[in-house]
């Protein structure tokens, strides 16, 4: 890695100021950013360590929603009784991320800010219509993820928390890469208060909602309906792991399993 300065602010205001002053990067769990730096795909001159900021941590249920602090680890989400009882699909998703080290170090805020196209959390955020709270504003899930490793976050803007509406039903299943555990295709389906949502990760340059799946599941929220949907291969990833056509075939198959998991 290249040389860099490490800054450890004691407040969120100090963290925002440090990022604005240095033009550096925020460091959460480090599971994405440090790996990128080791490969010399990123070389920030300053890292602003957020780990000492308690206001970015914790899980709470308020009315019909669950709010999760940005520095809450995947393991904490997976093991939370609040999440397990109110939103078990999200707990199961978190439990399936990476390995134990990744789950105990990686954070929900770091994951979504990094916006890896094969990450699991983006599917839950878009699939549930979550809201991302930052140091500047609230961002709707459908407006947050823009492209591969690109989000709506401005320079120096920090994710503070994510609020998930509690759905009537929800399920997530992924077809994992056996080495990385990232999704070759992952599908999150949900019956929400405003209708059916179906989000796909791993299949394209960015998480996306599948109108084909949503249309089929609106008529009948069943595995059979999901499996009957036809998804186009146009615009899907075509790489050494899977062809675009294979991913298009997998999406309704994985969606059917997600609906079955939703119960």
Could you walk me through the main structural features you see in this protein, from its secondary elements to its overall organization?
With 263 residues, this protein is an alpha+beta fold. Among the domains are: 1-49, Uridine Diphospho-n-acetylenolpyruvylglucosamine Reductase, domain 2 (2-Layer Sandwich); 169-262, Enolase-like, domain 1, CATH 3.30.390. 37% of the residues lie in helices and 25% in strands. It has 12 helices and 14 strands. It has helices at 12-22, 33-38, 74-79, 81-86, 88-95, 100-105, 108-114, 121-128, 141-144, 211-219, 223-228, 244-262; strands at residues 5-7, 25-27, 46-49, 59-62, 65-69, 131-134, 138-140, 145-147, 150-151, 159-165, 169-176, 183-192, 195-201, 208-209. The strands form 4 sheets. A 5-stranded antiparallel β-sheet has the order 4-5-10-6-7. Strands 11-12-13-14 form a 4-stranded antiparallel β-sheet, with helices on both faces. It is globular, with a radius of gyration of 18 Å. It starts with a strand and ends with a helix. The mean pLDDT is 95.
For the secondary structure, the number of strands is: 14
Low-confidence stretches: none
Order of helices and strands: EHEHEEEHHHHHHEEHEEEEEEEHHH
What is the makeup of the main sheet?
5 strands, antiparallel
Helix content range of the residues, please? Answer: 25-40%
Distance between the termini: 47 Å
What is the number of helical segments per DSSP (H or I, 4+ residues)? Answer: 12
Per DSSP, what share of the residues sits in E-state strands of 2 or more residues? Answer: 15-25%
Oligomer: single chain
Give the overall pLDDT as a whole number.
Answer: 95
CATH class of the domain at 169-262: Alpha Beta
The CATH topology assignment of the domain at 169-262 is: Enolase-like, domain 1
Structural class: alpha+beta
- Name of the CATH architecture of the domain at 169-262: 2-Layer Sandwich
Please name the fourth-level CATH homologous superfamily of the domain at 169-262. Answer: CO dehydrogenase flavoprotein, C-terminal domain
Sheet with the most strands: spatial strand order = 4-5-10-6-7
């Amino acid at each position: 890695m290249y040389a860099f300065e490490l800054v450890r602010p004691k407040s969120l205001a100090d963290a925002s100021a440090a990022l604005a002053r240095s033009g550096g990067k925020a460091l959460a769990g480090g599971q994405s950013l440090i790996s990128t730096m080791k490969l010399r795909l990123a070389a920030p001159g300053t890292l602003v360590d957020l780990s000492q900021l308690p206001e970015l941590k914790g899980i709470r249920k308020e009315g019909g929603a669950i709010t999760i602090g940005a520095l809450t680890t995947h393991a904490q989400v997976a093991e939370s009784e609040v999440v397990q009882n109110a939103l078990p699909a999200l707990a199961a998703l978190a439990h399936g991320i990476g390995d134990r080290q990744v789950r105990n170090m990686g954070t929900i805020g770091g994951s979504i800010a990094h916006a890896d196209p094969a990450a699991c959390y983006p599917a839950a955020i878009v699939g549930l219509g979550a809201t991302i709270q930052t140091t500047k504003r609230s961002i709707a899930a459908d407006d947050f993820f823009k492209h591969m490793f690109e989000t709506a976050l401005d320079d120096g803007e920090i994710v503070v928390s994510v609020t998930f509406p509690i759905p009537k039903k929800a399920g997530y299943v992924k077809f994992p890469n056996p080495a990385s555990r990232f999704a070759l295709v992952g599908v999150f389906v949900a019956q929400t208060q405003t209708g059916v949502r179906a989000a796909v990760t791993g299949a394209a340059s960015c998480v996306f909602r599948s109108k084909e799946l949503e249309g089929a599941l609106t008529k009948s929220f069943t595995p059979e309906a999901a499996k009957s949907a036809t998804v186009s291969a146009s615009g899907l990833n075509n790489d050494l792991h899977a062809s675009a056509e294979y991913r298009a075939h997998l999406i309704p198959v994985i969606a059917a399993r997600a609906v079955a998991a939703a119960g």
